[in-house]
User: What shape does this take?
Amino acid sequence: MRRVSLCLSLSLSVSAWGCAPTGSSAYVSFNIPPDSNCIVSPSVTNYIFLPEGTFDISKAGSNTACDNKSYRVNLLVNSTLRPNKQLALGRAEPNVLQIHDAEVTLKDVAGAVIAFNSVTPALPNPFRTTANNSLVPSQGGDPSTGIASLVAVPADYALLLANSKTKRTKILAEIQLFGTTTGDIDIDFKPFTYPIDLCRGCLTKCKSAVEANGGTAADVYGKECPDNAGADGRVCIDPEC
Assistant: This one.
């Protein structure tokens, strides 16, 4: 693959190859939670801005219904690449940006990288995770947008964080997305740092308690989505406790 830096040496052939401009051509705006139908949309009329995430890492009840969950973010991503197709020459659009993965580094609030070495083998930090979407070239003065969904705190990492004696704490997830254009140019996103509030039991509810009040989980406590994860306003319903 040709890196963006290689484009600098192609001053006489930029129009022929469709090189991306210098500097970052893609960035993350923020995290979007699922709506009341558990759907994530990049539409500016639908999204809700979350200045920080909330992730329930507690163990509820006597079973594993609310254990071993991962924390997922749905990032609003933007591409400022411009169209560069030349149909008369038989060249299709080379500036569609295809996102393929991300590097996540979990840090404490002071910015220090958290060590997950209490297990053997130790869990890597930073680590790579998949993230998929394609962004068409931008039109006019606005970037093109989409959603890149990825796991920011895997279940194994959440389990070690849950073993901490601190009842409530906050961590930072530094996320850098990577993509490649259809013209085979690698694009590195600007790193995006997102604070996540870790709690114990704040988004976990017992099914029996919900039903005893004559309601459903959605009626009484908020929306339960198919992943049944207590995160960003969604509750985890424990059927056994």
In short: The longest strand covers residues 169-181. The CA atoms of residues 1 and 184 lie 6 Å apart.
